[in-house]
Amino acid sequence: MMTLLSDSADSKSGDRETAGEVIRIRGGRPLTGRVEVKGAKNLVTKAMVAALLGETPSVLRDVPDISDVQVVRSLLEVHGVSVIDGDEEGTLHLDPSGAVTAHFEEIDAHAGASRIPILFCGPLLHLLGEALIPDLGGCRIGDRPINFHMDALRAFGAVVDKSYEGIRITAPNGLHGANIALPYPSVGATEQVLLTAVRAKGTTELRNAAIEPEIMDLIAVLQKMGAIISYEPNRVILIEGVDRLEGYDHRAIFDRNEAASWACAALATDGDVFVGGAKQQEMLTFLNVFRKAGGWFDIHEDGIQFRRAGALKPVVVETDVHPGFMTDWQQPLIVALTQAQGESIVHETVYENRLGFTEALVQMGADIVVHPHGLETEGRRVPRRALEQAAVINGPTPLHGADVEVPDLRGGYSYVIAALAAEGESTVRNVGIIRRGYEKLFTKLDALGADFDVVG
Ligand code: EPU
User: Full-prediction pTM beyond 0.90?
Assistant: First the structure.
């Protein structure tokens, strides 16, 4: 169903997936068929960094072909780590034995491309005694400060110098175990502490830690390497530092964000999608909301099938850290909620600016009002942070085609499914951003019967 209109779009690389930036979608057709999800972006990139801590090479399996992985791969390579594709598709062999301090210019070439460089700090400090961090990228969904990371590194004994080039971190007296309480259960800051504490001298106690399944999988990776990590109730993680770590051989946990995205695509387009590799346990919260919104799912050993049970129903959801409803799930869900009968409310409490993408949905005919300072609704728990926004979605509203530009990864994916659900033709620009986290997007859309062209 997909055609390539422009030669220039992919003739150089010979790969339509890596070239297209603009797609034209003719909507109004249900997505039907099967797609496979690989390892989670939000584990794989961290496990690649963890390989720096091993004295022997590591093997990581089920690595998706996404641009965030490419960025981390290049960063490892500029630090002298050899990264080689294995024979099995999606397998990386990572050998850190030649690790060296990289030049600021080489690191800076990755500035703005990803959030992951910040997680190099602990491993580089243990390995080389210093770490240079460029300006950080990632999606533009809020301020995304790094104060928790820097405070944690200082607690381990690191010295942080900010210069006009970026941040230089050293550990003149080595790193020692620390007692750290995070102001918020930040995913990245928890990973920072784990990757630093495993080789620090002594024991680290981390309170108010994030406990996302991807973090548990990172703990599993580190334990394979020789780390001693235990977790206790109430978000407490204890890490006993060890003198040396080995490489690991690990198959990454599946990408529950991508799985939820395809589930919402089935809901929004009134399709029927089997997501191979999706598992129930890590998606319990999502599945509850999916069911309440009028979705039907069937759990199989090798994946989950998703479609509508009947008419879509409005829901009230609040994003939260695990085990809550993930902030990365709300964008594709909102597209489906535009087709539900009645008023839905989505409270975003993790990031301060993650509902801006709804403007384009309004342009496509949706009735969505964003309350930038949140909204009181009955039965709300006290939010973890003062920071929040709310979107009120009234449906069902027919969606029509529009010309839209992708703002960020999850918002961008939601534009694609909105265009697929809409009557008429849409142009979606800047789709390259979606490649940060969705492998083989065009191939998968094609497999599900989407009608689209790559036009630039
Ligand atoms: N925060 C601070 N200070 C810090 C760190 C975080 O104030 O030093 C705040 C953030 O500004 C945000 C909140 O804490 O408001 C949560 O941030 P967190 O650190 O948990 O997020 P992250 O590690 O930067 C990861 C994922 C995100 C995902 C969030 C929440 C990666 C590479 N990114 O980000 O994924 O939304 O956790 O689960 O793992 C995505 O995949 O599209 C994506 C944005």
Answer: yes
